[in-house]
Design a protein that fits this description.
271 residues, alpha+beta, 2 domains, seven-stranded mixed beta sheet, three-stranded antiparallel beta sheet
Length: 271
């Protein structure tokens, strides 16, 4: 029994240490190690490998706690209209100015700050544009209750309607993207310079020249974001991920909740 406890603790400590490294391989090994530690802990206590296996698999069901409580109760407006918005406080987003400086050092100009608020859900966008590459960069901050996170996005809108996008969205994306999007997903710890280099490489690999990218101005950038949000909601309603309430708001359907859980499992494999 004591031997099993030391083995379990050793595997758990090693797994947490591996998860702290930026290497994707070490993080994957660390994730597997956490599952192994869960199995060993129950196995050595009960002597049953079946209960140990159920303990390890319970990690895969953990997202349902969030889905059945917070996500199930979430209601959002069908139409999202961006409005000028003041930047969040330093306490909420302490690195906003630092990231903005990084983006501007790559030749992007700060266009505007916009966003929208609904109940306890808020989104803030700081928009940039580089006329030379016809590229749009965005700092996106999502806030809900006591949870907040940000990500960076670089987009090039081709004249045929295709939106070539590089981002470092840190979580499982909760909605299906419309067929117009082509996503180049990068790790959340990458700097804007790394994302920008990856985006340019992404365009080269698909033979996307600057001449086929649609030029934008301040008004057009904000309008396109609103159109993207509107089309995404309509697409997810059509796909059964979202459903409309009697009051005209939108919420996740049961099919959408299963989709969220599958997204989590995919992220666990990619991790």
């Amino acid at each position: 029994m004591l031997f099993g406890l030391f083995i379990t603790l050793g595997v758990a400590v090693l797994s947490v240490a591996l998860r702290s490294y930026e290497s994707s391989i070490s993080q994957k090994i660390g994730a597997c190690g956490i599952l192994t530690a869960s199995f060993l802990g129950i196995y050595y206590v009960t002597g049953s490998w079946i209960l140990g296996l159920l303990s390890a698999l319970s990690w895969l069901l953990l997202p349902w706690v969030e889905i059945l409580t917070r996500i199930r109760a979430l209601r959002l407006p069908k139409e999202k209209t961006l409005r000028p918005k003041s930047p969040p406080s330093h306490e909420i987003f302490p690195t906003l100015d630092e990231i903005s400086t990084q983006i501007e050092s790559e030749g992007f100009l700060h266009v505007t700050d916009a966003g929208w608020d609904w109940a306890d859900y808020k989104q803030f966008f700081r928009l940039f544009y580089k006329e030379e590459d016809r590229a749009q960069a965005t700092i996106c901050l999502n806030e809900q209750n006591d949870l907040s996170f940000y990500y960076l996005r670089i987009s090039s809108r081709a004249q045929n309607g295709t939106i070539w996008t590089t981002w470092n969205y840190p979580l499982s994306y909760g909605l299906k993207l419309t067929p117009h999007f082509r996503i180049n997903r990068q790790r959340p710890d990458q700097s804007f310079w790394q994302l920008y280099q990856s985006h340019k490489r992404f365009l080269r690999e698909h033979s996307v020249e600057t001449s086929v990218i649609y030029p934008l101005d301040e008004d057009r950038i904000q309008l396109e974001i609103e159109n993207d949000l509107r089309e995404q909601i309509a697409h997810n309603i059509a796909q059964g991920v979202l459903t409309q309430t009697v009051g005209g708001e939108i919420k996740y359907s049961w099919r959408g909740m299963v989709y969220l859980w599958c997204q989590f499992l995919l992220d666990l494999v990619r991790m």
